[in-house]
Write a structure and sequence with these properties.
By secondary structure, the chain is of the alpha+beta class. It is built from four helices and four strands, in the order βαβββααα. A four-stranded mixed sheet has the order 1-4-3-2, with helices on one face. The radius of gyration is 16 Å and the shape is flat.
């Protein structure tokens, strides 16, 4: 069975600038800043290709991307019935797009947004709020 051998880490920071305060310490431990990513709300870092972690830095004051990731995490923890369809989709996409990461990621998009819509309704029902940042 194919599994994505990557750990995704999300870190909140007070500010992106000066960017060297983020990039230099991470480069010292082997992370590479992925400058070409189009997202303005995150900065992406990846360990060398032989390793297995991606790190994204989010602005602690911003709610968009950071809040969606936390909502998705908490909703999935609370809704075990969502696990099997998501796992099945990821496995099917991994098999079909073994060598095409962009297609794999794009193939998850509709399912993820459907989960986020359900998660938004759940958040309103239970009064979910993102945890306070320690950034």
């Amino acid at each position: 069975m194919y599994q994505k051998p990557i750990i995704d880490i999300q870190v909140s920071v007070v500010a992106f600038e000066p960017i060297e305060t983020i990039t230099e310490p991470l480069q010292e431990i082997g992370y590479i800043w992925r400058r070409g990513n189009s997202g303005l709300a995150k900065r992406y870092f990846r360990e060398s290709p032989a390793t297995s972690a991606h790190t994204s830095m989010c602005d602690a004051s911003g709610a968009g991307t950071k809040q969606r990731a936390l909502l998705f995490r908490d909703y999935m923890r609370a809704h075990v019935e969502e696990h099997a369809p998501y796992v099945a989709l990821k496995r099917a996409l991994a098999e079909r797009y073994r060598n095409d990461r962009a297609a794999y990621t794009d193939g998850k998009k509709d399912h993820l947004w459907a989960v986020i819509r359900r998660a938004n309704g759940w958040a309103a029902d239970v009064g979910w709020l993102p945890p306070p940042s320690d950034a």
